[in-house]
Amino acid sequence: MRYLVLALALAMPLVGWLSNSGWLGPTNGEISNRYPTLIVAAGYAFAIWGPIFLLDGVFGIAQAGVRAPDARLRRIRVLTAIGFALTSLWMVVFTLQWFWLALAVIWGSLACLLGAAWLASHTSQHRRGPWWQWLPLSLHAGWVSLAVFLNVAQVVVAFELLSIERMLPWTLVLFALAGLLLLAVVVKLRGNPWYALAAVWGLLGVHARQQASDLPGADMAANVALVLAVLVALTALVAGAMGWRERRKLRTG
């Protein structure tokens, strides 16, 4: 299993390069421009995949060196193997514009990555696992937690499931759902800064893109994204401080 996790971690940047170089079809940016939404982020925000792939590679290499893992790491390996595989699969099927399959795949990936981030962030006495576990997996999970809603919006627009002339009402519902997920996970992960960082980065990217958009309702969408970014950051600070106090009491008590 450890070598499978390593191989899948190293495969993601390769698949990402093939996808965004046009080898598999239209790039993600081209597809996004075909189906504009009020919740898509600016192009620069997707550069976060670089650090995510790099740190996932670090995780893959580090875990491969652990020959006698405990039960927690064994569960993390299973979840990350599935999560990494689904991440690569999503890049392929999204490029092929199989949007419904891509939507199912990215939600499956999120479930696995959140589970792995949870296990990596919680050990005995509320301590986090080694940084090479909780940092990469938290960053990846944080970005995908927002990306799933971007993907939902593009499916709505691509198939015209709801009004594409008046996108703001249903986009606000997506923002509300995204906010609930992000804030709940930040609290459960005790203010995990890397999960929050990825989420805030994505929301600021949405703010920047919608500020420059001429779609009806874009200004409101930009403001909502900015408010959510501030809420996530503040929640992470408060939850992190509370978690630090709990760990301190356990160490001194």
UniProtKB/TrEMBL annotation:
Alphabetic keyword roster: Membrane, Transmembrane, Transmembrane helix
Domain of life: Bacteria
Protein known as: Tryptophan-rich sensory protein
Transmembrane annotation, as ranges: 37-55, 76-93, 99-120, 141-162, 168-187, 194-212, 224-244
